Amino acid sequence: MKKKKKKENIVKNQIRWRLNGLFFMVFVLFSILILRLGVIQIIKGEAYAAQAKKTDVTPVSYSVPRGKIFDTNNKLVVYNISEKAIIYTPPKNPQPGELLELAKKLNTFLVMTDKEINKVTDRDLKDIWLLVHNNGTDLITKKEEKLYKQEKLNDKDLYKLKLNRIKESDLMAMDKNLAAIYRKLSSAIALTPTIIKNENVTDEEYAKVNENLENLPGVDVSTDWKRGRTYGETFWNMLGEVTSADEGLPAEKVDYYKAKGYELNDRVGKSYIEELYDGVLQGQKEIVKTVTDSNGNVVSTETVSEGKNGKDIVLTIDMEFQDQVEKIMQEELVSAIQKPHTDTLDTAFVVTMEPKTGRILAMSGKVYNRKSREFTDFTPGTFTYAFEQGSVVKGATVLTGYQTGVRDFGEIELDEIMRFKGSGTFSSYQVMNRINELEALERSSNVYMWKTAIEIMGGKYVPNGTLNINPKKIETIRYYFNQFGLGIPTGIGFGNETAGIKGTNPSTYFQIAIGQLDTYTPMQIAQYITTIANGGFRMKPQLVKGIREPNMNGNELGNVIDEIEPVVLNRVDMSEEMLKRVQQGFWLVTHGSKGTARGYFKDEPYNAAGKTGTSESYKNGVKTWNLSFAGYAPFNDPEIAIAVIVPNAYRDGYAQPHSAANIISQRVFRAYFDLNEKGRSTTK
User: Which keywords has UniProt assigned to this entry (predicted)?
Assistant: First the structure.
């Protein structure tokens, strides 16, 4: 009995000790916890409090109105049209579910344009479907869930499975207008105002959104702009385009623009003048410092830099003259197409420049669609497309002959039928017998030019002999042609300008003398003829002559910021006497008794000089003829130079059915001088 009681006491003591030990451990643990809380609250409390109150500062850019474009007579050409806009400025971390709820609210007010609705993809619809249907959990099997838990499937795998299992009928039933709104909201950049709708926003839509702003977090009503044009389709292509708010920066140039401080959704010029002068027209964006707390909520905003409207530019183009040039081209193309054997004809190009400055007065390319009977503007083709230009280049051939010493003033050559051993015969359009270089220009002798080129290349024509030349010396001719702008970029400033194609067959190298080997653009021919007209100065073609401060009061020009001076690219090696000699030859072309253009210019009051051209070409495997003219007026004090080419004007094997290049040139000269007589100076 005593032993039993003693044993019970021992057990009780053990339990007591164990309980005491447990209580002690609990006490220690609580002490540690209390100590830890004390450290956090007392020692590190301020640091954690500061962390909780931590804010982020984000600079946000706001676009400003783009600069306007005026013509040389200060007439407004391109401007901004104000339009209503619904905008959204998202917080730092918007959640898809929140965006969908916002989209649903906006869907009761806004009808998106067909263009925006058509941008909605099946993928967009599927993403919205998943949001609406509990993230598509019902589309995943238990087996797949088990594999996911075993890490044999990942989130990406499950997402793909869900997308593939959404039925087409489910998508057909979805609201695409809602999807278009959600697409806009979800693509917005944090803290950056993004346009949800700015085309055809009705007064009712604008008012309803404005009335419900307190229930539409991040949404606001505003005004936006789009580009408008005073002269409609005139000079349309060269003025260029601006990206839309939806496009933002062009994908292929994102890195370039971002390096210059642009945001992804900034609108920029994407072609020609709008692109080339984007840095001027863009303006200085307003920079606002946006402060957000740790939850991404906006705490405050502060304007760091006031925005400034884009600067205005003044073109060298006279839009009234440009409009007339385009109408002339269209009328003469339609007229020429009525003639026989012209089924390959559909295009014409014109470039007019001030010889003394290089300023472009008007330029145009037109393509006619025979089926629709409509014209397409192809003005960039004046510097992106090169053609066999024909005899218009013969002035450069004569001058190269002078400079290389193979020709002298008044030197006689026999214009005959040239026969090469094993190569057939070559001749001018008629045998002219003994002529000098002025007569060769006046009557457009091919033979005189061929013989000149052969001698420059170290050869000498021998009847029935072989063509013995030094092929490397073709580069001598090209060197001098380059001085006039033939075969090299003109400097107009556009990256897609072509320098033309060089012929590579040595047996035809002598054809360079008559514009039948290398190809040249209409802009190069315009630069070439201005170089001869102004006494040997190759001028850079210019489309803009000035930059002005934006004028907030109407459409008047602001103060001058920069006057763009004419640029001389080079002075040709030829002497003044040589150039005057060729100028005289060009005057004979238009006024001489046997001049190839006398029928079009001899009786005109503006006293033009120039050179006609006809050259072989091909279109769709069919041999054709190009027609061209290059000239200037008045002869003694040139104000305007012109280059015209009508490629593939008619089929080979038929007599020339029309002279569209000469007629277009004649009418363009008349239009220019008629405008001047009316007091509308195109060189203002």
Answer: Cell membrane, Cell shape, Cell wall biogenesis/degradation, Membrane, Peptidoglycan synthesis, Transmembrane, Transmembrane helix
Q: In this structure, what is the dihedral angle of CA atoms 522, 528, 529, 534, given to the nearest 10 degrees? A: 140
Beta bridge partners of 300: 291
Model confidence pLDDT, tens digit, residues 408-420 = 999 999 999 999 9
φ, ψ (nearest 5 deg) of residue 604: -80, 140
Q: Angle, nearest 10°, between helix axes 176-186 and 122-132?
A: 90
The model's pTM is 0.84
Answer whether 291's CB lies under 8 Å from 645's CB.
no
Answer for the pair 142, 150: CB distance below 8 angstroms, yes or no.
no
Catalytic residue list contains 294: no
| Euclidean distance between CA atoms 259 and 255, whole angstroms | 6
Residue from 63, 391, 617, 628 carrying the catalytic annotation = 391
Least Cα distance to 635 among 671, 601, 684 occurs for: 601
Q: Look-up: residue for tokens 């002959």?
A: 401
* Residue pLDDT, tens place only, 51-93: 445 556 555 556 688 999 999 999 999 999 989 999 998 988 8
Cα-based torsion angle of the residue sequence 207, 211, 213, 215 in order, rounded to the nearest 10 degrees = -130
Domains in the chain: boundaries: 319-536+572-683
Q: For the chain, give percent helix, strand, coil, nearest 5.
A: 40, 20, 35
- Do you know the residue count of the chain? 684
